[in-house]
Task: inverse folding
């Protein structure tokens, strides 16, 4: 039986290099029998966390803010695998991804925490202008590993593609790597 995968797309470009990685990964995952839900975060209108500590009271709607996270929460809770897909921005993931990570905090608040990350696996798909051996991609990977550790996600892998300009991802080896990573998930 296939797993449920949620892809949180933190790229503001609808046809950018990050989306190329997403599409390759998704194709591999679906061919392996997994179901994939892709959420394009830029289009969901998600606001930053207020730090109010009032979340988690209603498991069906964990945060006091009612915005695009209403689509993210159920997909995240149901998912076996969480994929963060992001361009490399300022040595880390995009603000769209960071905002969602902050807002997932509401799932752990309240008397009955829901959506614990302990049973979830995680993948990072990232494209950026820096070469993989440079500090930017390395810092982003380390950040992702820290997030996995903090939330309790089980690290399943990451793909980083050096791709600066729109379309640079076409024909790159990382597309095949992303496909194979999606296809290899069990």
Result:
């Amino acid at each position: 039986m296939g797993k449920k995968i949620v892809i949180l797309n933190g790229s503001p470009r609808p046809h950018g290099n990050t989306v190329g990685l997403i599409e390759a990964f998704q194709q591999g995952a679906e061919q392996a029998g997994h179901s994939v839900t892709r959420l394009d975060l830029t289009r969901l209108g998600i606001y930053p966390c207020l730090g109010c500590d009032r979340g988690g009271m209603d498991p069906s709607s964990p945060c006091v803010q009612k915005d695009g996270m209403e689509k993210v929460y159920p997909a995240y809770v149901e998912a076996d695998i969480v994929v963060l897909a992001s361009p490399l921005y300022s040595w880390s993931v995009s603000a769209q991804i960071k905002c969602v990570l902050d807002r997932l905090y509401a799932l752990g608040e309240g008397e009955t925490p829901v959506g614990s990350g302990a049973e979830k696996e995680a993948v990072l798909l990232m494209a950026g202008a820096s070469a993989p051996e440079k500090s930017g991609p390395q810092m982003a990977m380390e950040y992702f590993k820290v997030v996995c550790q903090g939330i309790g996600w089980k690290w399943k892998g990451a793909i980083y593609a050096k791709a600066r300009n729109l379309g640079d991802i076409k024909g790159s080896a990382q597309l095949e790597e992303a496909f194979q990573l999606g296809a290899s998930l069990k």
User: Anything to note?
Assistant: The domain at 4-184 is CATH 3.40.50.360 (Rossmann fold). Helices lie at 17-31, 69-78, 95-103, 135-151, 173-184.
